[in-house]
Amino acid sequence: MATSSSTEKLPRVLIVKRPDAMAVLGDGFVASTKFEILKAFESPLPLPEFLAYHSDSISAIIAPVAAPVTADLIRILPNLRLVVTTSAGVDHVDLVECRRRGISVANAGSSFSEDVADTAVGLLIDVFRRISAANRFVKQRFWPVKGDYPLGSKLGRKRIGIVGLGSIGSKVATRLEAFGCQISYSSRNRKPCVPYHYYMDIEEMAATSDALIICCELNEKTLRLINKDVLSALGKRGVIVNVARGAIIDEEEMVRCLREGEIGGAGLDVFEDEPNVPKELFELDNVVFSPHSAFMTLEGLEELGKVVVGNIEAFFSNKPLLTPVL
Amino acid sequence: MATSSSTEKLPRVLIVKRPDAMAVLGDGFVASTKFEILKAFESPLPLPEFLAYHSDSISAIIAPVAAPVTADLIRILPNLRLVVTTSAGVDHVDLVECRRRGISVANAGSSFSEDVADTAVGLLIDVFRRISAANRFVKQRFWPVKGDYPLGSKLGRKRIGIVGLGSIGSKVATRLEAFGCQISYSSRNRKPCVPYHYYMDIEEMAATSDALIICCELNEKTLRLINKDVLSALGKRGVIVNVARGAIIDEEEMVRCLREGEIGGAGLDVFEDEPNVPKELFELDNVVFSPHSAFMTLEGLEELGKVVVGNIEAFFSNKPLLTPVL
């Protein structure tokens, strides 16, 4: 009985949609003796009824990108005090409403940065050196019958413009320096103590870059930042890599540019309306897709679990959040 | 008449098979006013007759890997004085016979090393992070219908064993250090002033590595160096990347290990019997192929042309070879 009553007092943490990490690692992903998980996605109840039934008991949410924490959701949870995202980005959380209500917010911190940076570089090499295209070429038995190899372009001395030199962007820069690339960056402000050329104007950076790598967060200032003018400045041989958020690029315009050869290629991990991807690009040899999996490694997901659990346990022990946003 | 007679005195340089670089760049690849090219592959004559007809006039050969310079070929060219390969490796040239005849040999030097190193890293990222597999996953419209993403493994902290720390191997090491990998190497001798752990025994290195990257030259000591024991030591999660020569690996054994899950994956640019590749691996998601194109970039081929022409012009001006082998 004692155990049962102490269990009843554990803070209850809502999860609306199963995070990818939980699909891979199972419930062990966020196992803790200090809080209890409420999995809406496993309930036979429709979500509104599930929430109505449990609303008073929910004091925290674990929020994957696919399950936005809207003002509407927040309003029906009177005792909500903490939101922890399973992503670095928090654009799917209504921060204004959270601030108004005094709800704390933590994100995944920089636990993903290395893996995302690795994927960004992997996609860039793939597009410039045509790794996926070469793989298809061999598997389609074109070698050497069809003599025109997928000829790549040298990575060394390429001018790479990094959009957003935060935790991910700076790791992309370090990696690409080792390949002999020339790094420049754009961001809200010039960074002190950074050896790379700074561009205040992103169109100007695009015009002098062989590739742009999008690593910034999505917010009202970066929404469709990569528009027609930027893509046009990037030019026919220019490559774009996006490991940030789909909506930072004007996707419709990018699709047109790729189809009409107005830019040189793309490596895309994120899309405007996931999981819908622009299928009209599937036939293009110079476009490489991944399913928003830049952050997805077994080791990275295990690390993420520790960060999520650590934030929740810290919060309910009145300790500082590990990776606070609000 | 003066022009014609001076033309007749130009050294004649034989090319038996069209180098890939010439297929891409055209004859401009090795254009020079100081020597004349004899393209056997464009002649209507069968090769033996072509050679019999021109044998006395040939004083140099440009030798791609696909056209070995055998003792038999050398014997029918009494005035041959120089062989220039279009590759870094010279295993397709009978060096013993060249030495006996006093024939000079030059290779492509290190003009390819950066591009080959870039491909090695690209293949490694592709296998660990499943870039090609993710691309297929999206294009086959499995996202998110079929929920099991191709989950990758983190590159950081991976223990990478580099087989042969020469021009290519050391560039692979520099690049992978930037990803936070732990580098070790094996080679004939321990290198002075190198910060990486040295293994004299390759099987021991395989046993303590998450991946082996083959960067050494092919010679009698490295032929099938990566045998059953080494592959077995590498183990179920171990990855192998080969950008050197196919015959350094016991290919039949590697194919068996991959099919039976005894090693974790492979990124293969080279094969034992090119252009024949082990097609029984095509269905495996964890194997990435490229058609001996690790060195192939537009910029690299242009650079190669300069090195080949530079060697031939230097030789016939009695100057030192740019990239001498013999």
Automatic annotation (TrEMBL), chains A, B:
- Every copy of the D-isomer specific 2-hydroxyacid dehydrogenase catalytic domain together lies at 56-325
UniProt KW Signal keyword: no
Cellular component terms per the entry's GO annotation: cytosol
Which UniProt keywords are present, listed alphabetically?
Glycolate pathway, NAD, NADP, Oxidoreductase, Photorespiration, Pyruvate
Q: Name one Pfam family in it.
A: 2-Hacid_dh_C
Read off the InterPro entries from this record: D-isomer_2-hydroxyacid_DH, D-isomer_2_OHA_DH_cat_dom, D-isomer_DH_NAD-bd
BP-aspect Gene Ontology terms: oxidative photosynthetic carbon pathway
Q: Which GO terms describe its molecular function?
A: glyoxylate reductase (NADPH) activity; hydroxypyruvate reductase [NAD(P)H] activity; NAD binding
Coiled coil segments of this chain:
none
Give the D-isomer specific 2-hydroxyacid dehydrogenase NAD-binding domain ranges. Answer: 121-294
> Has UniProt tagged this entry with the keyword Metal-binding?
no
Q: Which PANTHER family match?
A: 2-HYDROXYACID DEHYDROGENASE-RELATED, D-ISOMER SPECIFIC 2-HYDROXYACID DEHYDROGENASE FAMILY PROTEIN-RELATED
Q: What is stated as this protein's family in its record?
A: Belongs to the D-isomer specific 2-hydroxyacid dehydrogenase family. GyaR subfamily.
> What name does UniProt use for this protein?
NAD(P)-binding domain superfamily
Q: List the source organism.
A: Arabidopsis thaliana x Arabidopsis arenosa
